[in-house]
Amino acid sequence: MGAQLRVYKRRIQAVTATKKITKAMEMIAASRIVKAQRKVAASQPYATELTRAVTAVATGSDANHPLTTEVENPVRAAVLLITSDRGLAGGYSSNAIKAAERLRERLASEGKEVDTYIVGRKGVAYYGFRERKVVESWTGFTDNPAYSDAKRIAAPLIAAIQQDAAEGGVDELHIVFTEFVSMMTQNAVDARMLPLSLDEVAEESTRKGEILPLFDFEPSAEDVLDALLPRYVESRIYNALLQAAASEHAARRRAMKSATDNAGDLIKSLSRLANAARQAEITQEISEIVGGASALADATAGSDK
């Protein structure tokens, strides 16, 4: 019985230590969410105005540019998948991977070949385990991305969209990331970055009551679009990285809170079992004492006779 009590005590100590770790991770994730939200909010105005500028150039000219021109029969698409470098974040990475798989199936059903680009060790490990081809991958910064990271990611994607599909280029560029909605809600979404859908931008501006600005193009609309193309792709990727980072921290905080609560429940359960074992041990000792005293009394009474 004493051995069973020691087992319970060791398990309580182990679970208590785990609870301290998960509680600390929960608090760290909670503190990082606020910083990530501020970065997301700070990046939105630049991305919005850049999109409006690109739309104004495209609608105000007849330039034929990969940023805004739809390919008549697209045959190849690039998909950028953003996952996390670390685990302990619930279904954060798996949900993004599932969204990428659905997008891949949809593009394949449309007769398009898919080139995959991945951010985050979780996505790299998923594709590596299944021996699937990945054109390029980036790791080590998913929880705190910088604009320089977005530029590194954008460079090969821009090169691919500027090449002809027959020469290894792509006709479309898609991105899959986790959109931060609130502390409790994060949605894995896919969006097409290029070619830019001018109708959607125009409809959104009309819905918001905005008027697209008018520009004079020097030296030409094509040159302006060439200059805006990398900035547009970089800003979209940077915003997606920031939203994914905020979502990762929120998912990790929620997962660690659940783990902390479960550890507390397990400690209570083990404490009850330990108390029951201790009571059983005390009861057994009392029974042994009473039995010994009774046997001694019987032996003494027999000797007196």
Strand order of the largest sheet: 3-2-1-4-5
Radius of gyration, in angstroms, nearest whole number:
31 Å
Per DSSP E runs of 2 or more residues, the count of β-strands stands at 5
Quaternary state of this entry equals single chain
Percent helix range: 55-70%
Number of helices: 6
> Mean pLDDT, rounded to whole units?
85
Order of helices and strands: HEHEHEHEEHH
Q: Can you summarize the main beta sheet?
A: 5 strands, mixed
N-end to C-end Cα span: 39 Å
* Low-confidence parts: none
Q: Can you walk through the features of this model?
A:
It is a single chain. The chain is α/β, with parallel strands linked by helices and 305 residues long. Helices cover 64% and strands 11% of the residues. It has a 5-stranded mixed sheet with strand order 3-2-1-4-5, with helices on both faces. It is elongated and about 125 Å long. The mean pLDDT is 85.
Q: Mind sketching the topology for me?
A:
Layout: H1 2-59, E1 76-82, H2 92-109, E2 113-119, H3 121-129, E3 136-138, H4 147-162, E4 172-180, E5 186-194, H5 198-207, H6 221-304
Helix pairs in contact: 1-6, 4-6
